[in-house]
Amino acid sequence: MRRVVITGSGTINPLGHSVPETYEAMREGRCGIGELDIRDVERLSIRIGGQVKGYNPDQRFNRQQQALYDRFTQFTLIAAEEAIAQSGLEFSGHVAAESGVVLGTSGGGLNTQDENYRAVYEEGKNRVHPFIVPKLMNNSAASHVSMNYNLKGPSFTVATACASSNHAMGQAFWLIRSGAATAIVTGGSESMLCFGGVKAWEGLRVMSRDACRPFSANRNGMVQGEGAGIFVFEDFEHAKARGAGILAEVVGFSMTSDAADIVMPSQQGATRAISGALKDARIGAEKVGYINAHGTGTAANDKTECAAVSKVFGHHADEVMISSTKSMHGHLIGGTGAVELLACLMALNDGIIAPTIGYEEPDPECSLDVVPNEAREAQVSHVLSNAFAFGGQNAVLALKTL
């Protein structure tokens, strides 16, 4: 089996418009969650979110492109440009034929749907733009990345709610490891912060009105965010032969299904996913120094995840650091695992563990080392990234330094 490494990373999210900006915000424990600036916000009960502020699509895309690119696709292309530039890969000849795109999203072109439902049902218009379907389809971002960079290998989109990005990156890992691809542009993106998107989530009654406080006893729900995280996964021998810089090695992946409840998480399902990633990576739990938690800030998720970690790690659970960066950037739903993977790369490369901010009160059911409020300097060689989605679909990635 081939070894798989990460040679490029890119992002735009509530913490920054690039990877360096995001790392700086994570080191500082900066919060990117604030008051929503969207149409009809006064009709919402939930009025906070992790929006990408200071973003003007006119500065990045022309009018013709904007007719084709929903906001989630725009975010994807911006992050992909940064990741591919860092990787130094040129997709031509056999490399283009053996390289592809695997991305995760949950809502896809939800902004486009929201705008056009409003136009048809509220404003009474009888016609919409002819490109609405290709603009809103979930595979739109993957298709545009493949076309922009001449990627002719496997190209598809994964939609598993909050685990979409991790599932996508896991598929990318498997494609390269099996020899089916040389390189895959992977990760995920999401932009659901429109009136319809937030209103739908309000109905679940899992949203906080003031802040995301994972693992804190006074937590009161999740906060939505938006953005994208994109990476270049590459065959190790190919990357080494061309002298590429390597950010980390992807060594394991596991996915499980709770097969239990559509919204309530299962400790057993999470436990099996974490154990499976360790088994696939062929590493013992004692090797892991940091876990980027799913950590949504809901009572059910946080305590279930902590119980699963304790079950898998045993006595080592008290020594491993586990933090939720959703406290800073919000829950990017289908794109969240991709942005959170940046915290794993920062831990491996810079020795900086991103904090769980907003932590105020200890919870006996979440008594692990959650790196409260301030980033921490620590040298780690192995990390995990957890994603546990509605529908009971779980995906865990394992990475290590080379």
How do you describe this structure in short?
The protein is of the alpha/beta class and 402 residues long.
Report on this model:
The chain has two domains: 4-241, 3-Layer(aba) Sandwich (Peroxisomal Thiolase, Chain A, domain 1), CATH 3.40.47.10; 253-400, Peroxisomal Thiolase, Chain A, domain 1 (3-Layer(aba) Sandwich), CATH 3.40.47. The strands form three sheets. A ten-stranded mixed beta sheet has the order 5-4-6-7-1-8-14-13-9-10, with helices on both faces. The model has no long low-confidence stretch (mean pLDDT 98). The chain has helices spanning 19-28, 63-66, 71-87, 93-97, 110-122, 132-136, 140-149, 164-178, 195-202, 236-241, 267-281, 299-313, 326-329, 336-350, and strands at residues 4-12, 34-35, 48-49, 99-104, 155-158, 183-190, 227-235, 248-257, 290-292, 321-323, 352-353, 376-377, 382-389, 393-400. The chain is an alpha/beta fold. Strand 13 (382-389) and strand 14 form a beta hairpin.
**Share of residues in helices:** 25-40%
Please give the count of helices: 14
Spatial shape: globular
Q: What is the CATH homologous superfamily assignment of the largest domain?
A: Thiolase/Chalcone synthase
Order of helices and strands: EHEEHHHEHHHEHEHEHEHEHEHHEEEE
Biggest β-sheet strands, sense, barrel: 10 strands, mixed
What portion of residues belong to β-strands?
15-25%
Question: Notable features of this structure?
Answer:
Peroxisomal Thiolase, Chain A, domain 1; 2 domains; globular; two-stranded antiparallel ribbon; alpha/beta; 10-stranded mixed beta sheet; 14 strands
